[in-house]
Every structure is written in structure tokens, then in C-alpha cells.
Design goal:
Ser_Thr_kinase_AGC; 6-stranded antiparallel beta sheet; Phosphorylase Kinase, domain 1; Transferase(Phosphotransferase), domain 1; 10 strands; about 375 residues; ATP binding; about 30% helix; globular
């Protein structure tokens, strides 16, 4: 295996970075292309999460564009509620993505364990998510796969948005971008229509609904089943179905986010109208952005041991032998050209949104119906 040309993230260290610079401590997650490890930088002793992705699996799943897209976006972003990339490098067989270490497990794990959350806990989660989406949208990016699996807790109970694999820089004609997760995918995406920031707020609405009701508004075994349900009926939480301990404002927020028609959906005009909803009246947004609020739900250390144990189990996914052999060809390796990143050169440390030349109004879409 050869090393790539990325320099170490430590500015004073000019050596080439490779997997040999890290000690792999334990598996903390799994993905479609490999595992996520807790690693320790041998020199600095700092702990990180390292996603090790098999090039053979990436090729077999025709996902080269997806992983390269994720690298490009992460290299431009840095925010308190987005998982931040520290370094990226490769060898002949694998891609390596070094990121912030988040030890709290994803929201899906905790939803399965809790079934539901309290209103106070859910509001805290939602504010974290809104702040992450605001940052992406101001930078002209649609995440397009907001779901509990892509929201991970840190050890303080703050949620961070992960996985930019199918995120896209917004463009006016994007009806062909139909990737996503059934159940959280906005109707306009399922129906192959142009879309804007409203798709991410729809997914947020599904998550809020799930925290309140313990289930998604639309369920099915396939994308087509879910699409048929969405077309058939607009689901809303009725007043007589509101669980004990939940306010009318919280339910109204969820109902307005899961509107099928983008023109009727809260958030289609950008983050300001979402933050202005009555549910967040007098909320200390800046205080939470600066991580000065104690989280109402903090994962326990013993739970994290359980999660790590579950993640150690090997995936049953097989690698096509032809894909492995193809890695010997220079033309195949060229597809991964430029998969490098040096975190020490990224000086965007301000957690507040950084404007780009794509304005928020430009990426709104109220035309789909």
C-alpha cells in the first residue's frame, strides 16, 4: 500500500500522513463501505473518528462521486453542529476520513431505546439541527438526508449532523437529484420535482413527529408504498392525539414542517421563519450555539460500550472480486485523485454561518406542489 501526499494535520510536522500515524482503538460505527474507528494520533495523542472506506466496495456500489462529493463539501465547512473533517488521505485499497470524535451514538439508537422523548429534550435536539441546517443553507448546500441515523450525540448531549454523501450545492434544475431515505424524503423529491431548502425541513418535521408520536407519519416497506401514502393523505397530529406533556406549539411546529406541498411548509422561505415559530419564543439561540446550555438528555457511558460492541460485528457485505482486481489499474485509482485534506489549513473556525455568493432566497423553492 502506498501513502498519499497529504501532510500531517500538525503544522510543524511535514511528514506524509498515513494510517501508520494512528492507533486504531475500537470500532464505533459501520457504514456501507466499511467501519468507523476511534483512533489516536500517535504524536499528539488526540482522539478522532476515522472512517475507513473500501475502494472496492465504493466502486461496486458505483459511489465514487458520492464519496468525492462528501470530501469536497466537508473541506469547505466548519460548524459546532456539523461533524467536522480533520484530515483525509488514501492508499491503494482504502479511503480514510478523519473527523471529530462523537461518542454518544446516533439519534436512531436512542429513539429505539426511548421510543419517545420529552418536549424539552426534543426542542434541544431540534435547535441543534436547525442551526446546522441554517449554516448549510446559507452556504448554498442542501443536505437531503436528514434522519436520526445521521444525527450523532457528543459526550455533552449536543447533536451534530453527519454524512454529506448525497448533499448537494443547490442549483435551479435539480429534479434529477432523487437520492434520500424513504420516510424522510420530501414529496417533491419523491415526485422528481425541483426542490430547495424545504426538503431538509420536511425531514426535520418527520423527526419531530417521531419524537412526539413514537413513529413516522408515513411508513411502508418501500419507497413506492410511502409515496402512495403521502399522495393519498396529509398526515397531521390532531389535538386529541397529543401525548401528555406536549404543548400545542410543539405539535403545530411538527404539523407545519410535514406539509406535503412545499408552498405550505414552514421553512420553505428559509431558517428565519423556522426560528420565529412560537415554539421557540424567547429561546436562547446564541447561548446554545456557543454550547452554554446543559443538554437535557446525555447518553450514558455504559450505553456507548454497548453501541461499540454491536458495531464490532462484521458486515455480511461481500466485495466483488473484480472490483478488488480493478484497483490495480491506474485508471481506477485516478477516480480517487485529490482525495486529500489537511485540517490545519482550514481556518474557518467561526461557528456562525458564512455567506457565499449563493443567497438563501436563491435556493428556495415554492414552485413544486
Amino acid at each position: 500500500m502506498g501513502n498519499c501526499t497529504l501532510k500531517s494535520t500538525e503544522s510543524e510536522d511535514q511528514t506524509v500522513i498515513s494510517i501508520s500515524n494512528f492507533t486504531q482503538k475500537s470500532v464505533i460505527g459501520k457504514g456501507g463501505f466499511g467501519k468507523v474507528w476511534m483512533v489516536e494520533n500517535k504524536k499528539s495523542k488526540s482522539l478522532y473518528a476515522m472512517k475507513i472506506m473500501s475502494k472496492a466496495k465504493i466502486i461496486a456500489k458505483k459511489s465514487v462521486q458520492s464519496v468525492m462529493n462528501e470530501l469536497q463539501l466537508l473541506s469547505q465547512l466548519k460548524h459546532n453542529f456539523i461533524i467536522n473533517m480533520q484530515a483525509a488521505f488514501q492508499d491503494r485499497d482504502n479511503l480514510y476520513l478523519v473527523m471529530d470524535l462523537l461518542t454518544g451514538g446516533d439519534l436512531r439508537y436512542h429513539l429505539c431505546k426511548q421510543r419517545k422523548f420529552t418536549e424539552e429534550q426534543t426542542k434541544f435536539f431540534v435547535v441543534c439541527i436547525i442551526l446546522s441546517l441554517e449554516y448549510l443553507h446559507v452556504n448554498g448546500i442542501l443536505h437531503r438526508d436528514v434522519k436520526p441515523e445521521n444525527l450523532v450525540f457528543d459526550d455533552k448531549g449536543y447533536l451534530k449532523l453527519t454524512d454529506m454523501g448525497i448533499a448537494r450545492q443547490w442549483k435551479p434544475e435539480n429534479a434529477q437529484d432523487t437520492s434520500g431515505t424513504p420516510g424522510y424524503m420530501a414529496p417533491e423529491v419523491m415526485c422528481r420535482q425541483n426542490h430547495g431548502v424545504g426538503v431538509d425541513y420536511y425531514a426535520l418535521g418527520v423527526i419531530v413527529y417521531e419524537c412526539i408520536m413514537g413513529k413516522r407519519p408515513y411508513v411502508g416497506k418501500s419507497r413506492q408504498e410511502i409515496r402512495d401514502q403521502v399522495i393519498a393523505k396529509q398526515v397531521q397530529i390532531k389535538n386529541n392525539d397529543i401525548p401528555t406533556g406536549w404543548s400545542l406549539e410543539a405539535v403545530d411546529f411538527a404539523n407545519k414542517l410535514i406539509q406535503r406541498k412545499p408552498a405550505n411548509r414552514l421553512g420553505v422561505n428559509g431558517p428565519d421563519e423556522v426560528k420565529a415559530h412560537q415554539w421557540f419564543k424567547d429561546y436562547a439561540w446564541d447561548k446554545l450555539l456557543d454550547r452554554q446550555i446543559t443538554a437535557p438528555y446525555i447518553p450514558r457511558d455504559d450505553e456507548m460500550i454497548q453501541i461499540a460492541s454491536e458495531n464490532r460485528r462484521d458486515s455480511a457485505n461481500e466485495i466483488d472480486p473484480e472490483s478488488v482486481l480493478s484497483l490495480r489499474r491506474n485508471s481506477i485509482q485516478a477516480q480517487f485523485g485529490g482525495y486529500t485534506f489537511n485540517g490545519s489549513n482550514n481556518n474557518n473556525n467561526n461557528a456562525k454561518p458564512q455567506s457565499t455568493n449563493v443567497s438563501v432566497p436563491a435556493i428556495l423553492s415554492t414552485k413544486a406542489n
